Amino acid sequence: MLELVVAHYTEDLSWLRTLPRNIRQTVYSKNHELLLPNTQLLPNVGREAHTYLTHFVSHYHALSEWTICCQGKPFDHAYDFKKWLKSVAAGHTVPQPFDWRGHIVDTDDQQGGLLFKNWSKNEDGRGLDLDQFHTALFGTPGPAFYTFVLGAQFAVHRSVVHERPLAFYERALAISIDFVDAAHCYERNWNRVFGVDFALPNGQRTAYLKPIKAQL
Questions:
Q1: Sheet strands side by side (includes 66-71)
Q2: What is the pLDDT of residues 166-204, one digit of tens each?
């Protein structure tokens, strides 16, 4: 069974209507004004990381075989997301046990100095304390660099989730609320959350997995 977990705020969710019926849809919204049908409301904290972790905590003992986590509008970071999802549902594509869904791989440092400080939506140019975040979540200092797929969207198999105990996800959920800019830290660490190594070959820090022009 595939379960699609959608982190919604204001996005148009009409694209969900055309998905195959064998995909279970679980939509969490942090917009308490829209009151969408078949949607579970969550407090507006912690961005998509809080949404995903809420699901893993509340469904830990009853997870679908595959959980696919995405934004309400996944196409900005993965323009072929719906095509890929339909292929998985039809059995034509089998994801990796942990499978990022995005088209750009990039790298940030422990202070967010390579990406986050210069991000156009980071108006005050603040940094990310990724080392402190890593210590809070994993109990050890973090690496010097964090290579990840942009967009905070991924598929993960139930067996991979269960490699860590429920208590780990409960702590992760608390951190998603209490730690400053936690969602941006999680975006850089989802592979580590599930205990999966991820790196580009030959020391690369950036890679384009799909032609960016296809998004235009």
A1: 39-41, 23-29, 2-8, 66-71, 154-157, 98-100
A2: 999 999 999 999 999 999 999 999 999 999 999 999 989
Q: What is d(CA 119, CA 127) in angstroms, rounded to the nearest whole number? A: 10
Measured CA distances, 203 to 106, 145, 146 (Å) = 12, 11, 12
Give Cβ neighbours of residue 20 (< 8 Å, ≥ 6 apart).
86, 89, 90
For the segment 97-145, what is each residue's pLDDT rounded down to a tens digit? 999 999 999 999 999 999 999 999 999 999 999 999 999 999 999 999 9
Can you tell me the distance from the alpha carbon of 78 to that of 100, in angstroms, rounded to the nearest whole number?
10
Longest dimension (CA), the chain: 49
CATH number of 2-103+149-215: 3.90.550
Q: Is the pTM of this model over 0.85?
A: yes
The full set of domain ranges for the chain reads 2-103+149-215
Q: How many Å apart are CA 81 and CA 86, to the nearest integer?
A: 9
Element (H, E) at 208: strand 207-208
Sequence-ordered list of residues with C-beta below 8 angstroms from that of 33, at least 6 positions apart, any chain: none
The answer to whether the beta carbons of residues 168 and 125 sit under 8 Å apart is: no
